[in-house]
TrEMBL record:
Organism name: Mesorhizobium prunaredense
Documented EC number(s): 3.5.1.42
Residue stretches making up the CinA C-terminal domain: 5-154
Enzyme class at the top of the EC tree: hydrolase
Superkingdom assignment: Bacteria
Keywords: Hydrolase
InterPro entries for the chain: CinA-like_C, CinA_C
Protein name: Nicotinamide-nucleotide amidohydrolase PncC
Molecular function GO terms recorded: nicotinamide-nucleotide amidase activity
């Protein structure tokens, strides 16, 4: 399934549940929201996209704690969780997808190599779910495209799990 097909499936799943969607993006710089809004009719589901590339933007726009950024860094589970929660709180969305990572080619370290991406997925009334992926260092564009794909897949999985848990749409 292509990223476009995944984006369309996610939009349809949100529409069926009657919820809106928002993104909080760092390393992708808006590629997730772009994949969603490339689809005609997405405005019935997409609320907004937060592009929070800098730490200041993460704090100002999403309420990510300066203490979290200092203690764990921008690329961390804690930051991804706070980004997803902040996007949920500061939008009309019922589902938010957050990503923060190191797309390269520089910026990596032994502890946080190029290709490391943290995801945060928030659904209204549910705890934020986080996940980490280490994508192969095959270039910046490769890592960013893989991040978009994985975020869309996580959104679909979160909605499916929520529905399976018996939560009414």
């Amino acid at each position: 399934m292509s990223n476009s097909d995944l984006a369309d499936a996610l939009l349809q799943a949100c529409q069926q549940r009657g919820i809106m969607l928002a993104t909080a993006e760092s390393c992708t710089g808006g590629m997730i929201i772009a994949a969603l809004t490339d689809i005609a009719g997405s405005s019935t589901v997409v609320d907004r996209g937060f592009i929070t590339y800098s730490n200041e933007a993460k704090t100002e726009m999403l309420g990510v704690s300066a203490a979290t950024l200092e203690a764990h860094g921008a690329v961390s589970r804690e930051t991804a969780v706070e980004m997803a929660a902040g996007a949920l709180a500061d939008s009309r969305a019922g589902l938010t997808l957050a990503v923060t990572g190191i797309a390269g080619p520089g910026g990596g370290s032994t502890e946080k190599p190029v290709g490391l991406v943290w995801f945060g997925i928030a659904l209204t009334g549910r705890p934020v779910v986080s996940e980490c992926q280490l994508f192969a260092d095959k270039g910046r564009n490769f890592i960013r495209r893989k991040t978009v794909r994985h975020a869309l897949e996580l959104g679909l999985r979160a909605l499916a799990a929520d529905q399976a848990a018996g939560v009414a749409p």
